[in-house]
Amino acid sequence: MNPAVREIADRVASEFSLPAEKIHSLITSPPEDVMGDYSLPCFILAKELKRSPQELASQIAKTLSGGIIAKAVAAGPYVNIVIDRPQLFSFILSAILNEGSLYGGAKKRDETVVIDFSSPNIARPFSIAHLRSTALGNSLKKIYQHLGYRVIGVNHLGDWGVQFGTLISAYTRWGDDEKIKQDSIYELYRLYVKFNDESERDPSLKDEARGWLKRLEERDPEAFRLWEWFVEISLNAFQRYYKILGVEFEVIQGESAYRDLTAPLIEELTRNKIAEESDGALIIRLNKPGEKEEIPPLILKTRDGTTVYATRDICAARSHWDQYHFAKKLYVVDAGQSLHFKQLFMALAKMGHEWSERLFHVPFGVMLFEDERMSTRKGRIVFLEEVLNRSMEMTRSIIESIEKMSNLSSDEKESVIPDVGVSAIIYADLSRSRIHDINFRWSEVLNFNGKSGPYIQYTHARMAGVLRKYEENVPKSPDFAKLGEPSEIALAKRLEIFPAKVQQAADEYEPFVIAEYLGNLAITINQFYDNCRVLGEEPALEEARIALVYCAKLVLKRGLELLGMRAPERM
Ligand code: ARG
Questions:
Q1: CB distance 187 to ligand 1 below 6 Å
Q2: Hey, which of 318, 333, 342 would you mutate to test ligand 1's pocket, going by the most ligand atoms within 8 Å of its Cβ?
Q3: What is the pLDDT of residues 324-344, one digit of tens each?
Q4: pLDDT digits (tens, 9 = 90+) for 163-212
């Protein structure tokens, strides 16, 4: 918060001999702008002084006026405070002008956050459903970085396990090398779907697949060669999508990286009696006797002797702890896996790892596509690559049809199209609270007038255009007393809350908080720009408004970057 809040807290503290820090933490924004800039609820303070909150509020209001405080009024148990306008603008805008792109962030700290995100399963094309984890995780990564953390983005690829038994089995039956070379991951996917279809008719196919998995786990050379080939094909394709999306990982380490750690883990857990045998399988019981909530045991090894997803997740968590001693590790994975993560965290706790309290599952809902639910196994799937290509095509035709935008040179157009087309999809994904299911609809995703990615980007480019035309350097300390129009105040106050929004997004693992904020900020900026002329006003007013435009553009850009979106200067 800005220095005005500090001063309010200090003044109340010294008048009433109360702790300033406490008062500082109590000051909020009132629910409506007309009430004032800040509000101090007096319940807690009144209790401390053994007085009635109403009486205290009116006494505080009386002593507060003067200096930076233009007006202080008691409203029942609250004191509503209006700050002297020029000073309010100066506090808010000077902070942004001085901090620049660091605004809303924090200094580097010696703490690491590990974020496991994207983590697709190999040998299946990237579907639009995978986009959710990718977009959320990538944004959380940028948000934590902005807050000064060292962030390790981990791609825990699904490159080991049952599906490889399935795939190898399908390949040995129907595989065609030529087709695979041509259509790589899509052909692998067709084999996978065919296998699932056929095995519904003939369940013995599943045994065959299990057999291949066993051979793979035992390093049978043929199984291993095929596995390596499938992984390579898939990774190449994934890297292409990550490049288009602008997503990078510090560590790409799939489940297979832990395959040699599972045997010693199982030996250790059997020896110290954390794991036990049940029906031929090896499990970790999680319920304590007498506990109400029934948590099924975690399975470490199945009856046919193969290890599973959870076994490798235990190894991965331990290895990340040993390497990073993280402050937090986030798993950005769909809500369908909530039980898995609950079991994983409980099992690690049972193993005596106190750091299991630093593990968090960040769940999210499913992605529907034009009202349809997708299913990988049944082949009802919408490929990310198709969606991205389509988005760019549609962006191109929209840009060509909007007259103002056709002013772009053809080079500019070529670079703007992917910036807008890709970011539109990211915004569509992040613009709802993550736990909700998302229904992806083209009409909303690319709506240049609604609260959409293109609308925010367009507002940013509009402000960039004003600054380009201004030609002078942006004044660092203009005469803020020139500002005072309602739409100027509304804009400054929106900019003021950006740091709080970034913090909230990090605390709640919700990039949506920033996405929503940016949508509102864009609206506020456009309202300001429609009401207030900037260029061509008398010089002092022009300077002050230019500073406001500069701050608005800076926050929009930073916000877009925190979502993993691009902020083109021209559109
Ligand atoms: N590959 C898994 C899937 O697509 C997600 C992995 C998430 N990360 C983890 N450590 N379990 O369902």
A1: no
A2: 333
A3: 999 999 999 999 999 999 999
A4: 899 999 999 999 999 888 887 888 898 998 899 899 999 999 999 998 99
Provide the pLDDT for residue 366: 86
CB 83 within 8 A of CB 65: no
Domains, the chain, in order of start with CATH, read 3-83 (3.30.1360.70), 112-255+316-369 (3.40.50.620), 384-562 (1.10.730.10)
Nearest in space to 118 (alpha carbons), one of 262, 300, 258, 246: 246
Q: What spacing in Å lies between the alpha carbon of 344 and ligand 1's midpoint?
A: 12
What's residue 455's pLDDT? Answer: 93
The residue whose CB lies within 8 Å of the most ligand 1 atoms, and thus the one to mutate among 117, 126, 133, 156, is 156
For residue 366, the CA-to-ligand 1 centroid distance in Å is: 15
Spacing of C-alpha 107 from chain mean position: 20
**What DSSP string describes 381-428?**
--BHHHHHHHHHHHHHHHHHHSTGGGGS-HHHHHHHHHHHHHHHHHHH
Quickly state the pLDDT bin for 546 (edges 50, 70, 90).
very high
Contact 255 CB / ligand 1 (< 6 Å): no
CA 204 to chain CA mean position, Å: 43
Looking up tokens 């990211």, which residue turns up?
Answer: 426
Q: What is the pLDDT of residue 255?
A: 95
C-alpha of residue 314 to centroid of ligand 1, in Å: 13
Beta-ladder partners of 361: 331
Give residue 406's pLDDT: 64
